[in-house]
Write a structure and sequence with these properties.
The complex is a heterodimer. By secondary structure, chain A is mainly alpha-helical. Chain A is 74% helix and 0% strand. Chain A has two domains: 11-45; 69-284, MetI-like fold (Orthogonal Bundle). Chain A has helices at 11-45, 49-54, 67-75, 78-109, 115-127, 131-144, 150-173, 178-186, 191-202, 204-220, 223-229, 238-247, 253-274, 281-284. The longest helix of chain A is centred in the N-terminal third of the chain and has 35 residues, at 11-45. Chain B is 72% helix and 2% strand. Chain B has a two-stranded antiparallel ribbon. In chain B, helix 12 packs antiparallel against helix 13. Classes of the chains: A mainly alpha, B mainly alpha. Chain A: It is found in: Cell membrane.
Chain lengths: 289, 308
C-alpha cells in the first residue's frame, strides 16, 4: 500500500462532511433572520426620512438624527404611554405573585377537596382563546364605566397569568424539602410564617421566572389594551400607542421604528438581564395573549 | 382510629383542608370572575339578539334565539375566514416547529458564540407583537422597504391577495402572514426541543455510532423517536394558539388581502359592527371547531401511542 491513502468516501463520511458545512450555514441563516430585522429597526430609527426614501436600500445612515425619538417621546406622548405600561406591568407582576404564591403553596403541600380539578381548570384557562371572554368583558367594562381604566386591564392580565404562575411556582415549591418546613414549624413558625421565611427565600429563581412571565404578558399585550383603552388617549399603553400611531395620518417609517425601539428595548433588556435565572420557566409561559 | 384533634376541636386533616381552600381562594376567585364567568356569559350572548346599545334592556334572561348562528354561518365571509384560519394555523404550526427543530439541532453542541446566537434567536419571540408587526410592514413596504430593493420588481407582500410565482397563482399576503408566524414562534418550539435534546441520554447515540450508523440514520432512528412526544405537545399548543390568534393578522394586514381569520372577524363584529350576539356566536363556533380538531387529534394520536 502506498503512503497517502485516503479512507474511502463512505456514506458516513459524506454525511459528516455535509453536516459540517450545513450546520454553520443554518446558524448563520438563523442569526441573519432574527438579528438583521432588529438592527434594521434600530438603523431606521436614527435616520432621516428623506434619506430613506431616496436610498431605501442603504443600511448605514449618512447622518444620525434623534429627531424621530424626540417626535415619538415628546409630541406623540410616548413618555406617558411608557409610564402607563410600567404601572400596568408592575401592578400585574405584584398582584400575580401575591395571588399565586398562596395558591401554589396550597397545591404543593396541602390536601383539600377539588385539588385535582384545579389543574384541569388551569389548563382550560391557559388554552382557551382570549378573544372569547374578551366579548363579555368588553360589555361589562362598558357598563361599569371601567373602560379607560388601567385597573381593569391589570385585572384581566392577572387572571390570564395566574394559572401559569401557580403551575410554575407549585413545581418549584415541591422541590423544597418538607423537612426544612417541619423544622420551621417546630421552631414555632405558623403556616404563613413558614411560607414567608422558609419557602420564598428558597424559591427565588422561580419567583423571578414567574415575575418575568407576568411582566412580559402585561408589557406586550395588545388585544385587551385595544378593547378597553382606545378611547382614552392618556391611559394608552406603549403597544396601543404604537398601533394607533401607525394608523394615523402620514407617520414616517422612521418615527414608527423609533416607537418600536421604545417598545421593544425595555422588554428585551429585562428578559436578558434575568434570563440566566430562568432555566426552563420561560418555555411554559410567554404565550397567551 | 380518629386523628388527633387540634386546639379548635377539628382534626388536623380538616384544618389542612380549610387552610388549602383559604390559600387557593384568591386564585380561584380571580379565575372564575375574569375567565370562567365571562366564558359562560359569552355563550349566553351568542344566543341573544344584543347590541351594545340595547344590552341593558336584553338582560341576562332575555329571549334566546339561534338567529346569530344562522346569520353568522350564512355569511360566505365566515367560511372563507375559517378556511384561511385553517391554512394559516396548519402551515404556521408546521413551519414554526420545523424551523425550531432545525435550530435546536444546529445549536445542540457547543461552539464559540453559542450564547449570543441563542439570544438572537429568542428576540423575535420576546419582542412585543406590535413592534415586530410594524417592523415587517416597514421592511416589506413596496415604497421604501429594504426587502423590495433586493427584488427585481417590488411586491406588495401584505396588501396583495394573489400573485404569480413561476406561473403558479399564490396567495401572497396569506403566505407572508404564515412566514411571520413561523418567524415569530419558531423560538418557542426551539426552546422546548432544545431542552428535550439536552436531556437525552448520550449513551443511545454513542451506541449507534459504534454500530456504524450515519448521522442521518442516527437522527431518524435514535433522536427523532425520542422527540415525538415534545413535538406532539408543541403541535397541540401551537395549533391552539395560532387558531385563535388575533394580534398578528390584525396588525399586519387588518384582515385584508385574503388574510381574514375568524378571530379578526370576531373583533370586527364586536367593534365596527357593534353586533355582540353575532360576534359571540362566531367566537363560540371558532372554539367549537377548535375543540373538534383537538378531540380528533388526541384520539388519533392517543391511538398511535397505545399501539406502539
Amino acid at each position: 500500500m502506498t503512503g497517502a491513502t485516503r479512507p474511502p468516501l463512505t456514506r458516513d463520511r459524506l454525511e459528516r462532511g455535509l453536516l459540517r458545512v450545513l450546520k454553520p450555514l443554518v446558524i448563520a441563516a438563523l442569526v441573519l433572520a432574527t438579528a438583521f430585522p432588529f438592527l434594521y429597526m434600530a438603523m431606521l430609527s436614527v435616520r432621516d426620512v428623506q434619506e430613506l426614501i431616496l436610498e431605501p436600500g442603504s443600511l448605514w445612515p449618512r447622518r444620525f438624527t434623534l429627531s424621530s425619538y424626540a417626535d415619538v417621546l415628546g409630541r406623540q406622548g410616548f413618555l406617558t404611554f411608557m409610564r402607563n405600561s410600567a404601572i400596568v406591568s408592575a401592578a400585574s407582576v405584584a398582584a400575580t405573585l401575591l395571588i399565586s404564591i398562596p395558591g401554589a403553596y396550597a397545591l404543593a403541600r396541602l390536601r383539600f377537596r377539588g385539588r385535582r380539578q384545579v389543574h384541569f381548570l388551569f389548563l382550560a384557562v391557559y388554552l382557551f382563546p382570549a378573544i372569547v371572554p374578551a366579548i363579555p368583558l368588553f360589555v361589562l367594562f362598558t357598563m361599569l364605566g371601567l373602560r379607560g381604566s388601567l385597573g381593569g386591564l391589570v385585572l384581566v392580565y392577572v387572571a390570564q397569568t395566574v394559572p401559569v404562575a401557580v403551575y410554575m411556582l407549585r413545581n418549584y415549591f415541591e422541590t423544597v424539602p418538607e423537612s426544612v418546613e417541619e423544622a420551621a414549624a417546630i421552631d414555632g413558625c405558623g403556616r404563613i410564617g413558614t411560607i414567608l421565611r422558609v419557602v420564598l427565600p428558597l424559591s427565588k429563581p422561580a419567583l423571578m421566572a414567574t415575575g418575568l412571565y407576568a411582566f412580559m404578558i402585561a408589557w406586550n399585550e395588545f388585544l385587551f389594551a385595544l378593547l378597553f383603552l382606545v378611547e382614552k388617549r392618556e391611559s394608552w399603553t406603549v403597544s396601543l400607542g404604537l398601533s394607533q400611531l401607525a394608523g394615523g395620518i402620514e407617520v414616517p417609517a422612521t418615527v414608527l421604528m423609533a416607537g418600536s425601539v421604545v417598545l421593544t428595548l425595555p422588554i428585551v433588556a429585562v428578559f436578558f438581564a434575568s434570563e440566566r435565572l430562568l432555566a426552563g420557566g420561560l418555555a411554559i409561559g410567554a404565550e397567551k395573549g | 382510629m380518629t386523628a388527633p384533634a387540634g386546639p379548635s376541636g377539628r382534626t388536623l386533616r380538616e384544618r389542612e383542608a380549610r387552610a388549602g381552600l383559604f390559600l387557593m381562594s384568591p386564585t380561584l376567585v380571580i379565575t372564575l370572575v375574569v375567565v370562567v364567568v365571562p366564558l359562560l356569559w359569552a355563550v349566553m350572548l351568542a344566543f341573544q339578539n344584543v347590541r351594545l346599545i340595547n344590552i341593558r334592556r336584553v338582560g341576562l334572561f332575555g329571549r334566546y334565539t339561534l338567529e346569530n348562528f344562522a346569520y353568522v354561518l350564512a355569511e360566505p365571509g365566515f367560511w372563507s375566514a375559517l378556511a384561511n384560519t385553517l391554512v394559516y394555523t396548519v402551515a404556521g404550526t408546521v413551519l414554526s416547529i420545523g424551523v425550531g427543530l432545525a435550530a435546536a439541532l444546529a445549536l445542540r453542541g457547543a461552539f464559540p458564540g453559542r450564547t449570543l446566537v441563542r439570544a438572537s434567536i429568542l428576540i423575535p419571540y420576546v419582542a412585543p407583537v406590535v413592534a415586530v408587526a410594524f417592523l415587517w410592514q416597514v421592511m416589506l413596504s413596496p415604497q421604501y422597504g429594504i426587502v423590495n430593493t433586493w427584488l427585481g420588481e417590488p411586491i406588495a407582500f401584505l396588501s396583495q391577495a394573489e400573485g404569480a410565482f413561476l406561473g403558479v397563482r399564490v396567495p401572497v399576503a396569506l403566505l407572508t402572514v404564515i412566514a411571520f408566524e413561523a418567524w415569530r414562534y419558531f423560538p418557542f418550539a426551539f426552546l422546548f426541543i432544545l431542552a428535550r435534546l439536552q436531556a437525552l441520554p448520550p449513551e443511545l447515540d454513542e451506541a449507534a455510532v459504534v454500530d456504524g450508523a450515519t448521522p442521518t440514520q442516527r437522527f431518524r432512528h435514535v433522536t427523532l423517536p425520542q422527540l415525538w412526544r415534545v413535538i406532539a405537545l408543541l403541535s397541540v399548543l401551537r395549533f391552539v394558539f395560532t387558531f385563535t390568534k388575533f394580534d398578528d393578522v390584525y396588525l399586519l394586514t387588518g384582515g385584508g388581502a385574503g388574510t381574514e381569520v375568524v378571530a379578526v372577524r370576531v373583533y370586527d363584529f364586536l367593534t365596527a359592527r357593534d353586533d355582540l350576539g353575532a360576534s359571540a356566536a362566531q367566537a363560540i363556533v371558532m372554539a367549537a371547531v377548535l375543540v373538534v380538531f383537538l378531540v380528533v387529534y388526541l384520539r388519533s394520536f392517543g391511538g398511535a401511542e397505545a399501539r406502539r
